[in-house]
TrEMBL record:
Keyword Transport: no
Family annotation (PROSITE patterns): PPIC_PPIASE_2
Organism in which the protein naturally occurs: Pistricoccus aurantiacus
EC number: 5.2.1.8
Swiss-Prot/TrEMBL catalytic activity: [protein]-peptidylproline (omega=180) = [protein]-peptidylproline (omega=0)
Recorded family membership: Belongs to the PpiC/parvulin rotamase family.
Name used for this protein in its record: peptidylprolyl isomerase
Keywords linked to the UniProt accession: Isomerase, Rotamase
Start and end residues of each PpiC domain: 115-216
Amino acid sequence: MELIDIENLPGGSAAPPVRVGKVTIAEEAIAQEMQYHPADSVADAQLKAARALVVRELLSQRAQELGLAPIVDARGVENDEAMTDLLDRELEVPEPDETACRRFFEANPQRFYAPVTFRVRHILLAAAPEDAQARDAQYHQGVELLEQLSRNPERFVEFALRHSACPSKDDGGELGWLSPGQTVPELDRALEHLPSGLHDRPLASRYGWHLVDIEERVESSPLPFEQVADRVRHTLFEQATRRALRHYLLALEETYGVEGIVLDEEAGGALMQ
């Protein structure tokens, strides 16, 4: 089964000493683990780190009880294969049926849309972000070129060959069909909201200024269930796996005992009978 991040269980607070059964998790270990759990504050990072180590220790004790391979080797390195073997053995996650998949699809139509796509050509007037003089000069050249293109749009290919710093100049500036995420973020955001046609102002990016012509635009549209059935099934299976894993960890917390931190202060071990 695919491993899922498990350090984000809700609730709880960390206060040393933290123990799992008879094993004490040292403050030094928590401090070392904090580097892997960025947070808005030191206290939050410490809490996330402590939870992660508690979860690891719970799984380690369960694997030892079952006579399975150690979750953590002698060097203190986690054994992902051993953890996967343990969870495959312990967790029972049913595959969602078609009825559940269709119900989820109908309740969340916004999650299953084809993205907007656009056929684009451009002319890149290169200028580094820190070169204010070059950016100013290139911007003004871009304005002049756009004024000429507004009167003579057929010259776009000519101008691309003469002025563009992008390799697409050899194709007349053609970038082909694009969807969100396929260009640099600053240009990507602009393209998503522009109408078809030649944009009347140069668009800025980290590379310089872009003269953009959207030749064709296809708006976002809903996808049929049959086309996204596998995505829906995967989403539901992942959700079910997260729930099963959460319940399993809470059951281990109750079985072995955890001090100094709780994985779920609202429900505790009562979720698992």
